[in-house]
Amino acid sequence: MTKLDARLHAHRSDLADISLAGKVDAERFVEPRLMQVVEPLVTVHKAQRSDAMQLTQALFGETVKLFEEEEGWAWIQLTKDGYVGYVNGNALTPNIVAPTHRVAVPSTFMYPDASLKTLPAIPLTLNAQVTVTGESGIYSRLSNGRFIFTAHLKQMDDVESDFAAVAEMFRHVPYYWGGKSIHGLDCSGLVQLSLEACGKRALRDSDMQEATLGERLMVNDLDSLRRGDLVFWDGHVGIMTDEKTLLHANGHHMMVVAEPLKDAVDRIAARYGQLTSIRRL
Questions:
Q1: Beta 277-280 vs 215-217: how paired, if at all?
Q2: Helices (H) and strands (E) in the chain, counts
Q3: Cα 140 to Cα 41: distance, rounded to the nearest angstrom
Q4: Predicted model pTM
Q5: Domains of the chain, each with CATH number or no CATH
Q6: Strand order of the sheet with strand 41-45?
Q7: Is residue 89 very low, low, confident or very high in pLDDT (cuts 50, 70, 90)?
Q8: Bridge partners for 240 per DSSP
């Protein structure tokens, strides 16, 4: 049988998605249940342990396919980008509420009342999805009974036009492997969340993005780049904010920085290798 990428296909030796029957070997196949994330920011782990590697994160309001829940751990697949991993089962609910709005700023809060002085205030991050049921002054009432500052929301189909401008809002955010929020993110997480705010879907990891996003440019022509071009190395990606400046989350600075592309190319080449491709959306 053809080997499928386990990051994007839910299959183990003992259990697999029923849609993969005949494509993979497994002891049994199951029909997944659709669940919704009810925690602000949920770590998707590589294994059923709290100290297992963080692969990515799930945001409030997004849906997942649930294949198994055991001892508090849920084996899931994110419906947005297809990523597979393990999350805390308490972060999910079977009661799906269709979102009407998305968080359109890097971070905001849900309050128990229509007042910024009320507690507990629960943080939400860019691209979190909420359901608005009414208005109370400058606040929107949500389906869970909480309130959020209306100006921090946009309707689901009201998307941004410049994904590089979205990414620029995250300058100086700390580097965090598998992260995709204002609290910390990695290189491909920055690309994914910025494109998502513009209504464009992107896969999670840099190798996936390199294989699927945009059109390939000549890798040795660094003088004709423009805003929004994606620059790839083996295991890394950055966003051009103009013809000479690269914005990227990286482990050298341990944060999101904008720096001359030439500086990044020279530094990365000395340790990891040359550019592998440039993609234009």
A1: antiparallel
A2: 4, 25
A3: 21
A4: 0.97
A5: 16-93 (2.30.30.40), 101-155 (2.30.30), 163-280 (3.90.1720.10)
A6: 54-59, 41-45, 84-88, 73-78, 63-70, 33-37, 92-93
A7: very high
A8: 246
